[in-house]
Design goal:
Length: 367
């Protein structure tokens, strides 16, 4: 026990030496127990464009997926800025969500994983002919087979003015901000995600989506931001941080099917005959038949995988916004935190925007 006490004294002294006591207070009681409630929301927009040069027609369409807000309740137990948490999901059909975070005097780390599938979507489209709008559509749709969406977010940042400004004061209450202060921050983010509706039941969306059935992205971002802790009264801190990031590595891989149907001007289709799977041609010698906007079994539908398309680009702008509020009294505290991230990528005719946000409320005691 004596040895453990000496280690604790050493860690406490080290924590206090890293900060200016006029601005940041390191509580004497190092242990914290928190009860936390969290909600996480994701919005995925998938956009495609279609061109039919023969008739000078063009169409832009969009699928929007919004799974249920993932609510959870749990607890956190830790020493200073390090600890263990457990949460129980309260929402059905919201997929799986995991997160790990750590905040120190001059650094921060976040890891989030979200995986879900849904058949519910909002479909909107605008049709053009010779540059003039010919129709608009906006409706709820049920995908024939689920769409799977997976995202992994890893973020780390460094605080320049760590002696006087602390993210931890607002986000995990391991320290207390006594005076208002701000700091520039530099950060790095690794983001990867996949958008997948490979089940052939979704063939209609594959055909009008240029054969794409899965998109994978790997993206590395660097950014410079600024955070500020406002202390209007003792024990209360309000934090706001904004960090725009620029991708220095952006690899998009689009997996595609080829089919014996294609988008083309309307024409008689009774002279096509039967489809030959060996030659991949119709009896009249053509490789594609004008698509009928249905996929009943009487259609001689055939499909096969082709080489995926890989594109590399840079300078995609993403955004990291955070807001935190904490109030401390005696050995108790309450905190409210929120974070918003936006990621976007595109491949040829398609574009995917993912909006990821969470809000969390915590009540804790120092021991």
């Amino acid at each position: 026990m004596e040895r453990l006490h000496q280690v604790q004294q050493y860690l406490d002294a080290k924590a206090k030496a890293k900060v200016d006591p006029h601005y940041i207070e390191v509580p004497e009681k190092p242990w914290r127990v928190m009860l936390r409630y969290k909600e996480n929301a994701v919005d995925v927009d998938y956009t495609q464009s279609i061109d039919i040069p023969a008739t000078n027609e063009h169409s832009d369409w969009n699928l929007c997926f919004e799974p249920p807000i993932a609510s959870s309740v749990g607890f956190w137990v830790g020493y200073r800025g390090t600890g263990f948490s457990f949460a129980k999901s309260l929402t059905k059909n919201a997929g799986r969500y995991y997160s790990v975070s750590s905040t120190g005097a001059k650094y921060g780390f976040n890891f989030r994983l979200r995986r879900f599938n849904t058949q519910d979507a909002k479909f909107s489209a605008t049709d053009y002919e010779n540059g003039q709008t010919t129709g608009k559509y906006d409706t709820d749709v049920k995908m024939p087979s689920p769409v799977w969406i997976r995202s992994v977010y890893i973020n780390g940042y460094y605080v320049f003015n760590g002696r006087r400004y602390s993210q931890a004061a607002a986000y995990n209450q391991s320290v207390i901000q006594r005076r208002s202060a701000g700091s520039f921050l530099v950060g790095a983010t690794w983001y990867q995600s996949s958008f997948d509706y490979a089940d052939i039941k979704n063939v209609l969306f594959m055909i009008i989506g240029h054969g794409i059935y899965r998109v994978k992205v790997h993206q590395a971002n660097l950014g410079i931001g600024y955070g500020y802790n406002w202390v209007p009264l003792r024990g209360l801190v309000v934090n706001a941080m904004a960090m725009p990031t620029v991708s220095v590595y952006n690899r998009v891989k689009a997996y595609k099917y080829e089919t014996n149907y294609d988008l083309s001007p309307k024409e008689p289709v009774d002279d096509y005959g039967d489809w030959n799977k060996d030659t991949r041609r119709w009896d009249n010698g053509k490789t594609h038949k004008p698509v009928e906007m249905r996929t009943e079994s009487n259609q001689q539908f055939d499909y096969w995988e082709i080489e995926p398309e890989v594109s590399n680009s840079m300078f995609k702008i993403n955004l990291d916004l955070r807001l935190g509020i904490a109030y401390n009294w005696s050995n108790y505290f309450i905190g409210i935190q929120a974070q918003y991230n936006n990621f976007n990528y595109k491949s040829d005719h398609s574009k995917v925007n993912i909006y990821d946000a969470y809000a969390r409320v915590a009540f804790g005691v120092r021991l």
